[in-house]
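Researcher: Please predict.
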Amino acid sequence: MGLQLVKPHAEIAEVWPRDGYIRLVGRIHGRPADGSWRLLVTRRARAAQRLDYRARVEGDRFESELPIADLAVADGAGVEEWDIHLSDGAAELRAGRQLDDIRGKKKIMVFPQQHTQGLSVRPYYTVKDNLSLECRTEAAS
């Protein structure tokens, strides 16, 4: 079996959905972790709509959190998806879990939902093992 190179990304180690927040802990993989980093959450249906949060970085380890209430949008569809990146201003690294031997996390790892303002929010892994957020209005649940 040949060596598989993994492109630079934000390797997620822990996902903590609780108390109205989603807390993420991980490591910056494949890129120097110096400088100032931000957690970016991008609405998939409207890529120009982004939420931006401070990320605390020590060495290559990062930690950040976002309030789920920020994901409630006035013009939202019944289901909205948001993608997660870490950025130092020069590059955006997709958040996901690539460096383990677990493939197909979308069907294996299930996180609990949280509720706010008529919205349920649940982190999930995509088919490419990236981490995203699914938001459903109560009408779409």
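Model: The radius of gyration is 15 Å.
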